[in-house]
């Protein structure tokens, strides 16, 4: 992954829900969360309870049974284990493309709003 995204920085890792919650407190403004569903003390979904999730999440797991539930937690992709690096890179690029699109949209929001008004 590092060779595909050399400017990216991993801020923290977590093996448990407790560690994940702590990392989230220490780094609340990350751009992306890569999250295994099965942590040492339960499902990572528990760490998301009672939180509004605005950070995009890529879930990683050996189980396909959690796919639908993952989309309740701002999931932008769902990668199955064993992890194929090219598959994970595609998932992360999806986030990068989405972030670029959001940036473009916010830059031209006023222009687009005016343009849409003229069309409608």
Overall shape? globular
- How many extended strands? 5
Q: How are the strands of the largest sheet arranged?
A: 1-4-5
Mean pLDDT: 82
Radius of gyration: 17 Å
**String of helices and strands:** HEEEHEHEHH
What separation lies between the terminal Cα atoms? Answer: 45 Å
Strand content: 15-25%
Helix content: 40-55%
Count of discrete alpha- or pi-helical segments spanning 4 or more residues = 5
Largest sheet: 3 strands, parallel
Task: Specify the structural class.
Answer: alpha/beta
Uncertain spans, ≥5 residues at pLDDT below 50?
none
Q: Overview of this structure, please?
A:
The chain is α/β, with parallel strands linked by helices and 120 residues long. The chain is 43% helix and 16% strand. The protein is built from five helices and five strands. The chain has helices spanning 17-26, 45-48, 67-70, 85-107, 109-119; strands at residues 33-36, 38-39, 42-43, 57-61, 75-80. Strands 1-4-5 form a three-stranded parallel sheet, with helices on one face. A two-stranded antiparallel sheet has the order 2-3. β4, α3 and β5 form a beta-alpha-beta unit. It is globular, with a radius of gyration of 17 Å. The model has no long low-confidence stretch (mean pLDDT 82).
Distinctive features:
alpha/beta; globular; two-stranded antiparallel ribbon; 5 strands; 120 residues; single chain
Describe the SSE topology.
Layout (H helix, E strand, L loop, with lengths): L16 H10 L6 E4 L1 E2 L2 E2 L1 H4 L8 E5 L5 H4 L4 E6 L4 H23 L1 H11 L1
Q: Quick recap of the structure?
A:
The protein has 120 residues and is an alpha/beta fold. It has 5 helices and 5 strands; from the N terminus they run αβββαβαβαα.
């Amino acid at each position: 992954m590092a060779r595909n995204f050399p400017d990216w920085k991993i801020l923290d890792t977590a093996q448990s829900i407790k560690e994940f919650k702590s990392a989230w407190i220490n780094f609340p403004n990350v751009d992306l969360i890569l999250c295994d569903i099965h942590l040492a003390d339960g499902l990572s979904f528990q760490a998301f309870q009672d939180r509004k999730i605005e950070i995009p999440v890529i879930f990683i797991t050996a189980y396909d049974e959690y796919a639908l539930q993952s989309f309740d937690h701002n999931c932008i992709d769902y990668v199955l284990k064993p992890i194929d690096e090219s598959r994970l890179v595609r998932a992360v690029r999806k986030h990068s493309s989405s972030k670029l699109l959001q940036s473009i949209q916010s830059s031209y929001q006023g222009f687009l709003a005016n343009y849409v008004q003229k069309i409608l």
